Amino acid sequence: MKLYNWTDTPGVFRRRVAGGAVAAVMGAAAVFGSGLTTVAHADDPATLTGVVLGVGASESQRVVSWYSSANTAQVVEVAPTSELVDGAFPADAVTFPATVGANTVNGGYNGHATVDGLQEDTAYSYRVGAEGGWSSTYSFKTQDFEGDFNFLFFGDPQIGSSGDVAKDGAGWLDTLNVALAANPNTELLVSGGDQVETANTETQWNAFLAPDKLRQYPWAATIGNHDVGGKAYEQHFWTPNTDRSAPYYNGTPATRSGGDYWFIYKDVLFIDLNSNAYSNGSDAAHIGFVTDVLNTHGADAKYTVLVYHHAIYSPAAHANDGDNQLRRQDFPTAFSKLGVDLVLQGHDHSYSRSYEIKNGKKARPGEQPSATEVAQGPGGVIYVTANSASGSKYYDLTAPDTTEDPNYGPDPLNPKSHWANSVENQEHVRTYVKVQVDARRNRLVVENIRSGTCAAPNAAVEEGNVSWCGPNDGASPAKPVGSKVDQVVIHTYRGEGRGKVDAPKPARGESAWLRQSAESGARKVTLTSLS
Q1: Biased composition, Basic and acidic residues: where in the chain (predicted)?
Q2: Which pLDDT score is estimated for 34?
Q3: How many alpha carbons fall within 13 Å on the CB side of residue 336?
Q4: Fewer CB atoms inside 10 Å of the end CB: C or N, the chain?
């Protein structure tokens, strides 16, 4: 293990590691300052379930969350995979103490810990628990901490919505396997919300969390409308830099899940909003949250990607929902003024990709439908809605209806579609979205990719919940897995008024807060780093 020095200067340290992550790292510092921690042996070891790997505040962090049958002293133990011998962790493996609290869902407990000090280009193995009661061993790999990268975006698995949890889970597992077999070096899995059909139904959560890929790649959780109404979402996913104040909930924080959060990964500032909270000033609170985060951290990243559940330029059943009509008034101008690049959304179980939208209007009236290249101007934002990743539920596309919303009528260039959308698609097959961050060429590449066909696993088709399958409303045969529904190269705007500058990069293998702290000359504390 290597020893690094870090400072506890609040203005520097909390800048990249905030909230629960700060507590976890400070706890780790206290342990490692006096040597390797020794966890008390559990006479009655806890049963540990639902282990999931989540994003941290930066490239050098991951958050691990799980359920526990007992409130014992628990940790996440981590070591480079190359140092394990016959599956056994080395004596000097690093441990990160967990926060364990009462679980309001099933009467047990839920735990989480932040793993920090990860080095780039390294395979790690980890397990959770304590001596005498460890979970299985899982693994993940970090990539370069700077440069281009890919992430995958998944719409509404909503396990249980077809009426058959097992079939929904099979489709979800298959999409993850297909997507990651095709993109093994992807670095993040980003959620569009609605992990499950019913917020506190653990059989649905068990099916959602069953794929081991969710322990190998970090899941950036998003809360959907089916995830609210209980604490299960929040207890399954601990997220970094999260504000859980009342405006970011759609009900009482003590009994429901919510919160807005952010993290920086390489050149992207991700901001995730709980769009379930939209009345009583919550939209204004969300805009304030985005504004504050960008004012404080916007210079640390090249691109801003917003993620939330309710698609405001929705193409299907939710297109004219009253709450979406309100969001279409509240969000677009603010996002344009703030310099947001890309907005990722779920909720409508169909795929759409917008034209370049500025201040709630089409930025360039002449932009053609299905254009494969778009050059953003100042204030231009692209909105993407993801289709179902599991096949549990699909919504058919709707025709624009100005009697429902006079401001959301047809596209003059393609009257069958809503004016905001360059592409709208529904084939009743599973898909996922791949986003390539190509910072060297100032572009983002967005692809919607088929992860299934009309054949099983495709629960909505199998259960007869939809009557056709395939392109052109089923008139054409299903295209193969891996084929693209849509692809667009977005040449991003980096000109005057962007409000961002390129942030200095940390040295290889060094986290940004570590280098910034060292440069500040503030008081130093010894911390063990994973290497």
Answers
A1: 495-508
A2: 26
A3: 18
A4: C
Signed CA dihedral, 209, 181, 488, 427: sign only? negative
Residue 68 pLDDT: 96
Query: Alpha-carbon distance 458 to 83, whole Å?
Result: 41
pLDDT given at position 6? 28
Q: What single-letter amino acid sits at 526?
A: T
From the centroid of its chain, how far is CA 442? 22
Q: What's the confidence (pLDDT) of residue 32? A: 28
- Listed residue (191, 243, 194, 195) closest to 219, CA to CA: 191
Sign of CA dihedral 399, 401, 404, 406: positive
- Chain centroid to CA 270: how far? 8
pTM value is 0.87
The stretches of 144-236 forming alpha helices (DSSP H) are: 165-182, 202-209, 232-236
What is the SS3 assignment for 81?
helix
The sign of the dihedral angle between the CA atoms of 185, 188, 189, 192 is negative
The stretches in the chain having pLDDT less than 50 are 1-42, 499-529, 531
359's tokens: 């201040």
Which among 187, 292, 191 is positioned nearest to 233, based on CA atoms? 191
Instruction: Report the 3 state secondary structure along 377-393.
Output: CCCCEEEEECCECCCCC
SS3 122: coil
